[in-house]
Specification:
With 468 residues, the protein is of the alpha+beta class. Among the domains are: 119 residues, Uridine Diphospho-n-acetylenolpyruvylglucosamine Reductase, domain 3, CATH 3.30.465; 106 residues, Alpha-Beta Plaits (2-Layer Sandwich), CATH 3.30.70.2190; 87 residues, Alpha-Beta Plaits (2-Layer Sandwich). Strands 12, 13, 14, 15, 16, 17, 18 and 19 form an eight-stranded antiparallel sheet that branches. The radius of gyration is 23 Å and the shape is globular.
């Protein structure tokens, strides 16, 4: 079978075999399955005759073996917080959904080794709490931390607001336990800092979106919880000046910049208008920056010195004020959603190119699509922009989006490719970006990816129809 072709719908005998492999941990109740068949943006709607809910890795292995024998596609799903349809089964019901939500234990915290072993269904917020109980922290956070699971975060190579200092999941996962497409269990949870015995198989699974196997547990790297953190908000007239502030802060702090977010004035206005959170600065600035420094020593003076060249700035004087500043950034997607529909793009360009791209690409899109309003915000320190194109104000926004979506996305992704960037910075490819990946991706890289898929999953049962 071609591993890139979606397997046919499962037969009654195949479903019975999967149910037996699950040992009773499954449901066919449409009401229980329905919430898992639509993505967070409600753009992708799937169908499946069966939801599998294994409780341990041996059950997952049995399920995968049965799926291989019966030629049934399996779609792994974590917290269902994805934005590109990667965890949604095909709409024709040709695949079975397997949720890791019941595999949610924190198995072990190795304080001396600064590692935490969590099952794939563990919620990110619970990982944070478990690490904090030992004076440590897992340095990855995002808006969906109350529902996103670590298996899904690893499978999509999630990033978040601390990538600038700590990297994505590729840098933060020290080991994995996973069930490969033939049903064998890969156990690499030792978390060795040095292991020079060949290919690092776990890195093939991280970011593969469940197409090369099902991650069942991860060993996560922890760092000491910082004794001090300081959060500030600054305003500038150009994004290029924001990059200058970041460079200055990195130098002054010795690399203790935890986060550096870039937000346009329109984004601040949306949060104020729809969520009632007043702008942090007294006057309106074209571009604004949310900055966090963290370390073993107080950093207030460092932040004040680093932001001295901004047009205006405030520094939080308490944890509650710091949290209030962060809420303005974390709730921006919600405010934008309440304002109206948009065409969303999760892209990355080289850090040094991001300020110019934010301005020039926005101008090009607004010029070529009459009435379009670009909202570009994101993680300046790692080059990740959420480049969202909003419809013209007034009635008919949904129709405008429907008519223009494909053309807008093709244009934005073309601009990203021309800038040497990536059409997916942190949300993955899923089904949303498959066509553009094939059109714009490096052919040599794509061929290597497909060869790996062919070698590991020749039957094409792992998350069919996604990524490749």
């Amino acid at each position: 079978m071609d591993p890139l072709v979606v397997p046919p719908p499962p037969t009654a005998a195949a479903l019975a075999a999967l149910q037996a492999a699950a040992g009773g941990d499954f449901t066919t109740d449409p009401d229980l399955i329905a919430p898992r068949l639509v993505d967070w943006r409600r753009r992708y709607h799937g169908a499946t005759p069966l939801l599998l809910l294994p409780r341990h890795v041996d059950a997952v292995a049995a399920i995968v073996r049965a799926a291989g024998e019966q030629r049934v596609g399996l779609v792994p799903q974590g917290g269902n917080t994805g934005l590109v349809g990667g965890g949604i089964p095909p709409a024709d019901g040709s695949a079975v959904l397997i949720s890791l939500s019941r595999m949610n234990r924190i198995r072990h915290v190795d304080v001396a080794g600064q590692l935490l072993i969590a099952e794939a269904g563990a919620i990110l917020a619970d990982v944070h709490a478990a690490a904090a109980a030992h004076g440590l922290t897992f340095p990855l956070s995002l808006g969906a931390k109350g529902s996103a699971t670590v298996g899904g975060l690893a499978a999509t190579n999630a990033g978040g607001v601390q990538v600038l200092r700590h990297g994505t999941m590729r840098a933060l996962v020290a080991g994995v336990e996973a069930v490969l497409p033939d049903g064998r269990v890969l156990d690499q949870l030792q978390g060795l800092a040095k292991d020079n015995t060949g290919l690092d198989i776990k890195q093939l699974l991280i970011g593969a979106e469940g197409t090369l196997g099902i991650i069942t547990a991860v060993a996560l790297k922890l760092v000491p919880a910082p004794a001090h953190r300081v959060v500030g908000w600054a305003g500038v007239d150009r994004p290029q000046r924001a990059l200058g502030l970041l460079s200055r802060l990195r130098q002054l702090s010795g690399g203790q910049v935890e986060s550096f977010e870039l937000i346009p004035a329109d984004g601040v206005d949306l949060v104020a208008q729809h969520l009632g959170m007043a702008p942090p600065l007294a006057s309106r600035h074209a571009w604004q920056c949310l900055v966090e420094l963290a370390g073993p020593q107080p950093l207030d003076e460092v932040l004040a010195q680093g932001l001295a060249d901004a047009d205006d700035a405030v520094i939080a004087q308490s944890e509650s004020q710091a949290a209030a500043l962060w809420r303005r950034r974390e709730e921006l997607p919600l405010a934008e959603r309440q304002d109206g529909p948009a065409v969303h793009h999760d892209i990355a360009v080289p850090v040094s190119a991001m300020p110019d791209f934010a301005e020039t690409a926005a101008a090009i899109v607004e010029r070529e699509f009459a009435g379009a309003r670009v909202l570009a915000f994101g993680h300046l320190g790692d080059g990740n922009l959420h480049f969202n194109v909003r419809a013209p104000a007034g009635d008919g926004a949904a129709d405008w989006i429907a008519r223009q979506r494909e053309a807008i996305t093709a244009r934005v992704h073309g601009l990203v490719a021309a800038a040497g960037g990536s059409i997916s910075a942190e949300h993955g490819i899923g089904v949303m970006k498959r066509a553009d990946l094939a059109r714009l991706g490096d052919p040599v890289r794509l061929a290597a990816m497909r060869a790996i898929k062919q070698a590991l999953d020749p039957l094409g049962i792992m998350n069919p129809g996604k990524l490749y």
